[in-house]
């Protein structure tokens, strides 16, 4: 059960149903497992293996040498935390982005993607290639597309495909290739998500009647529904909820093996005046009167799915199309009750995407659903 270079905690000691959680110092991550669950037959999932002992590995960042028309120094087979890289463009090309980057403890590179471009007569500028990625497409005229994929054991976050628009901008956001041990820092979540809410989802009108942000887009006459769930099981040591300067419809709940509803989103649809200050007071004064040992993540999504279904029935299908849903879960991501939440999440997507099956139709609906997992660190 031991982990080399780190330590572990148990939610229920060595009792059945206990969750073992591995912890590593900053700049390291647990490998090969982050957690293990004690089953009712007294075996662990995932089971420890003597030939692959649990240890804290040094954080690795994606390969930055994918940059075109320039050089990356120093050239290395792998890049680890605190490694520094510099970028220089070939003659005739101009640098955009960061000329110096550092591999951070969360497995991301500091700064922004370095791009070596030049005047080519294209409508859109070269969109570059993020670290660890490959790109198909080198023509950047109006309606031209570029497609991204990730190398080796990385997974893609963001838009797999981007289109050159008439205004000279690329659609969607730049994708990124992450390892499984990559995570967003609390500062990143606060800045990017919070500023997106405050600065983009305002009552001001944009030229095309649509307000767009880095992650969230909503039409001027649309509705924003925010669902917040905070894990209060024994595996969690602290909690925090951020407030925003806009007035969306809120569903706020705490959860462990049970679902404790604090603010019911349906109250906003019953012509009740729900003030933001009232919401904050309710959350601050809410008390949990029992010990919370289990974690049922699927129960959270099922409750949110039920609320979405009720809202859709209440406002009608056409108006529901303009509802943007943001689900925020503060949790360590581990669960030991209720089974996998994946099927329920698929049902939520199906509802918001309006049963669209084509790739283009699905992408047009993806802007109406965002799911954030804010991992307790």
From TrEMBL:
Q: What is this protein called?
A: Uncharacterized protein
The organism named in the record is Chaenocephalus aceratus (Blackfin icefish)
């Amino acid at each position: 059960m031991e982990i080399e270079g780190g330590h572990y905690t148990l939610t229920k000691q060595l009792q059945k149903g206990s969750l073992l959680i591995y912890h590593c110092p900053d700049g390291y991550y647990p490998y090969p497992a982050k957690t293990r669950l004690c089953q009712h037959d007294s075996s662990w999932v995932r089971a420890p293996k003597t030939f692959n002992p649990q240890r804290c590995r040094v954080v690795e960042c994606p390969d930055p040498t994918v940059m075109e028309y320039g050089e990356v120094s120093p050239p290395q087979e792998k890049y680890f935390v605190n490694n520094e890289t510099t970028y220089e463009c070939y003659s005739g090309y101009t640098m955009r982005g960061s000329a110096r980057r550092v591999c951070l403890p969360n497995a991301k590179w500091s700064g922004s993607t370095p791009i070596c471009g030049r005047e080519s007569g294209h409508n859109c500028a070269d969109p570059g290639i993020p670290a660890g990625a490959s790109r198909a497409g080198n023509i950047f005229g109006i309606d031209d597309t570029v497609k991204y994929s990730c190398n080796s054991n990385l997974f893609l976050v963001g838009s797999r495909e981007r289109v050159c628009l008439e205004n000279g901008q690329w659609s969607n956001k730049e994708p990124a290739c992450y390892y499984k041990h990559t995570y967003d820092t609390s500062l990143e979540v606060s800045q990017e998500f919070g500023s997106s809410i405050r600065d983009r989802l305002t009552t001001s009108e944009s030229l095309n009647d649509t307000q767009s942000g880095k992650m969230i887009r909503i039409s001027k006459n649309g509705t924003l529904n925010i669902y917040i769930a905070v894990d209060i099981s024994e595996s969690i040591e602290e909690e925090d909820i951020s407030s925003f300067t806009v007035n969306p419809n809120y569903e706020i709940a705490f959860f462990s093996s049970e679902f404790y509803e604090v603010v019911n989103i349906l109250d906003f649809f019953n012509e009740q005046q729900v003030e933001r200050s009232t919401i904050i007071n309710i959350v601050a004064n809410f008390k949990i009167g029992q010990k919370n040992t289990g974690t049922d993540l699927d129960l959270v999504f099922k409750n949110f799915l039920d609320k979405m279904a009720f809202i859709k029935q209440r406002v009608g299908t056409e108006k529901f199309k303009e509802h943007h849903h943001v689900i925020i879960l503060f949790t360590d991501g581990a669960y030991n009750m209720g089974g996998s939440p994946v099927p329920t999440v698929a049902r939520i997507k199906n509802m918001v995407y309006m049963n669209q099956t084509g790739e283009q139709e699905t992408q047009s609906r993806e802007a109406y659903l965002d799911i954030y997992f804010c991992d307790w660190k």
